[in-house]
TrEMBL record:
Coiled-coil positions: none
Protein family: Belongs to the ATP-dependent AMP-binding enzyme family.
A Pfam match: AMP-binding
Name this polypeptide is given: AMP-dependent synthetase
Length: 508
């Protein structure tokens, strides 16, 4: 059975991502597009458009254009947005890099994506300079050119590209198995997802969006940043989640739409002082990226005075596939992820088969729609294993009720989500296997009080070593959010006859 959205299909404009998001900026003129919630720096829609044009002209004069990849490594700040759309407006693709990555991890993403230049935020510019030949800085740095020094008055480059086949953004995701891979999201994929979500959420010039979840992750990128700009909202950026600052921002900017990941909802449900802030402007709060507890949701929404509903999606789907539409906010249960977005089809199949489950039963979610990626970069095998006949295998177990409301029941794929961030077990296993005392290793997610889940390693040793030694060994080579937080020594790792780790036998 094919499930369909209750909303009619929407038309997907045949334009580039930047034309779609920034092109309309003329309508909003001197209205504020972006505010740095920490420094107070603001950028109007007209200012954003002018800066994107000057940045694109400068990058083009520097030789960046179609076929190139630009790496963008920054926390949320208005200049991230200028650099992002300037690079995309040259016809290049942007690969967003998590600034928390280690130099080794950054170097790997640059190599895999083929990025020619890096645009880095000031605090991480040194790290970028360690691994990249050409770095432009969002701010100032003694050893690198500032990004704004590139700006020229010339017109934005004229592009003759096909939005349907040209990659705009290359985020990295491990998908259902293995190590992180470049996800080829075309202009059309991203424009489609913005047009689709817009049909269910009425974001307008009266809205103020708090943007603390990172723009380098697809949730922050599409759902928070670009959908906000498309609607003409004011987007208030924060570099990281610190509860008091966040609450002051919600109250001070009269935020109407808030976007959470589960650890933020937990903090709001339990922290003192939430009620001391005037949050009466909040009309909409969305949570996604990992499972959210219903009881925690109810506690947090009582304290916020605003309903919290979930969104669902994945990097490979640009990301949105399910939404709780504005009109259904109160009537949709908080534990669900709502209904299918327009132009989106779903099937629920018996895992490992092409057979649909009976109505109401749980199975693996498959998605078909214009937001589904063009494939993984340079990895036809992973692409073929993930998309069959146009159907994207999500690796998530879901069920749908008779009203077309979906619930995420469990995760089938090996991916671990720590605070909503992807952690690929295969990456940690590869690091563990380089330790001289380790003969074999397997990593799975286990429940974690703040992270939701966290990596636990099962290790077979050749010589004595402590769990702490192994955890520090891994921590020295991976970004902090990927750390192994528990080690158990075992005699052997359970494997299938073909050598695949049988993770379900290791999960709690
Ligand atoms: O690829 P990724 O890191 O992508 C994301 C996307 C998040 C969002 C959040 C709000 C939206 O409205 C939206 O459209 C997308 O995190 O990880 C994808 C995996 O994260 C899990 C699930 O296992 C996906 O395959 N995940 C995402 N949202 C939920 C979730 C959720 N609401 N409940 C449970 N798991």
């Amino acid at each position: 059975m094919i499930h369909r959205s209750p909303l009619p299909d929407v038309e997907i404009p045949d334009v580039t991502l930047t034309e779609y998001v920034i092109g309309g900026a003329a309508r909003f003129g001197d209205a504020t597009a972006l505010v740095d919630g920490r420094t107070g720096e603001t950028l109007t829609y007209a200012g954003l458009r002018a800066a994107v044009t000057a940045g694109a002209a400068g990058l083009a004069a520097h030789g960046i254009g179609p076929g190139d990849v630009v790496a963008l490594m920054s926390h949320n700040q208005p200049s991230f947005v200028v650099a992002l759309h300037a690079a995309i407006a040259t016809g290049a693709a942007v690969t967003p890099v998590n600034p928390a990555l280690t130099p080794g991890e950054i170097s790997e993403q640059l190599r895999l994506s083929g990025a020619r230049v890096v645009i880095a935020a000031e605090p991480v510019a040194d790290k970028a300079l360690e691994v990249a030949d050409e770095v432009f800085v969002l701010g100032e740095h003694p050893r690198a050119r500032s990004f704004t020094s590139l700006f020229t008055d010339g017109p934005a480059p004229r592009l003759d590209l096909d939005p349907a086949t040209t990659v705009a953004v290359l985020p990295f995701s491990s998908g259902t198995t293995g190590i992180p891979k470049g996800v080829r999201l075309t202009h059309r994929n991203l424009v489609a997802n913005l047009a689709q979500t817009r049909a269910g959420w009425r974001i307008g010039p009266d809205d103020v969006q708090a943007a603390v979840l990172p723009f380098f992750h697809i949730y922050g990128f599409t759902i928070i940043l670009n959908s906000g700009l498309l609607g003409g909202a004011k987007v208030v950026t924060l570099p990281r989640f610190e509860l008091d600052e966040y609450l002051r921002t919600l109250a001070g900017h009269r935020v109407t739409r808030a976007y959470f990941a589960p650890p933020m909802v937990l903090a709001l449900a339990t922290a003192p002082h939430v009620e001391d802030h005037d949050l009466s402007s909040l009309r909409f709060a969305l949570c996604g990226a990992a499972p959210l507890d219903v009881e925690v949701t109810e506690r947090a929404q009582r304290r916020l005075g605003c309903l919290i509903r979930q969104g669902y999606g994945m990097t490979e789907a640009s990301p949105g596939t399910h939404q709780v539409f504005d009109d259904d906010f109160a009537s949709t249960p908080p534990g669900s992820v709502g209904r299918l977005s327009p132009n989106t089809e779903a099937r629920i199949v018996v895992p490992g088969t092409d057979e649909d489950v009976a109505p109401g039963e749980t199975g693996e979610l498959l998605i078909r729609g214009p937001q589904v990626m063009a494939g993984y970069l340079d990895d036809p095998d992973a692409t073929a294993a993930t998309i069959t006949d146009g159907w994207l295998h999500t690796g998530d177990l879901v069920r749908a009720d008779e009203d077309g409301v979906f619930w995420v029941v469990d995760r089938l794929k090996e991916l671990i989500k720590y605070k909503g961030y992807q952690v690929a077990p295969a990456e940690l296993e590869a690091v563990l296997l380089t330790h001289p005392a380790v003969l074999d290793a397997a990593v799975v997610g286990v429940p974690h009080p703040e992270g939701g889940e966290a990596p636990k390693a099962f290790v077979v040793t050749a010589q004595p070593v402590t769990g702490d030694e192994l955890m520090s060994f891994v921590a020295g080579q991976v970004a902090p959010y990927k750390k192994v937080r528990e080690v158990e020594f075992v005699e052997r790792i359970p494997k299938s006859p073909t050598g695949k780790i049988l993770r379900r036998l290791l999960r709690p």
